[in-house]
Fold this protein.
Amino acid sequence: MMIAGKTLAPELLNEFERMLRQRKSALAGDVLGLERDWTDRSELDPAHSSHMAESGSDAFEEDVRLARMESAGDEIVEIEEALDRIRDGTYGACEGCGAPIRVARLRAIPYARYCIPCKEAEETA
């Protein structure tokens, strides 16, 4: 089995590491912003609205906020695991077949674990 991380040029590994760290930082900032906005809003109206329509709107906004925070958290975990793969030399190797993941795919999704054929197979299984 070929370990693709060893075949990627150091400049590419540095590029991907930089991309991953920037995305992680942006996501962490988004999560903090969502938390801060909700805290600020709750402090302005601690009892929330007693009007039924506004209560429904508040609940919907809370659901959206929580979904965004969960999605960001999941992506941060993927990014941390990709950074681990860079460190251990397995970054860029498909976890399904061991073949190198195309650079274009890594640029689009720098934390990709699978080559396109293996990802498609996983999604249809």
